[in-house]
Protein: L-2-amino-thiazoline-4-carboxylic acid hydrolase
Amino acid sequence: MDRKEIAEQFYMEEHAVLYALLVKAARELYGDKGELANVEGTIQYGRERGRRMALRALKDGEDLSPKNYLLYSEWVDDRKWSKKDVYAISPAFTTHCTHCGWCESWKKHGLLEYGNLYCSHIDVNLVKGFNPDNVLNIRSVLSQNGPCCDFEFEKVSFANQEELDAFNAKKRSLKDHTVKDFLYHTASELSAMDRVYQSILGKEAAEKVVSTAIAGFREKFGEEKTAALLEEAKQDFTVID
Structure:
């Protein structure tokens, strides 16, 4: 099976489950130090994604405004696994996610207690990776018993629905340039977490964490997906193509 075919089999579930399996392995094998590595790895992963978004924006001659952060997002929910509504367009653009594909995937596999660490650190660090001056206020998240994922983007507003519609149309037009598939995202997550595990826990401990998580991933998703993931993870995710 070629890369395109196997990549189509990756989505939020694979991404969510791998993350939770990594967190579980590090936490159970190395306790508080493993948990520190989990937190720092999630921060690293978020910052790297944000920086890649920034590099694409700058390459296009765009500034690193909060609105361009939204424009240059690296993923899109084409399969509608999540439900996100616009709660306010001004004075600060605010969204409410009432059904989350990541959260549901963690629940499905009995991994919510490990996966919900993601929600504490990922989005604020995506924003900071794009531009340290930008601010995202997170007022609740589903995975931590909130009524929704309530995100308020400071200094982002739209005068009316027509302006928001035009913005969304521009975002769709950039999709082929900005959006990466979930094989890429799952592998970049593995790469970032592994590098931080090595830095904090040491190479041997990092290998143990990753091999434990990969064994769990293989059991759930099979050898073909696992092989594709490990091959994809060999690239440098700190640069853009």
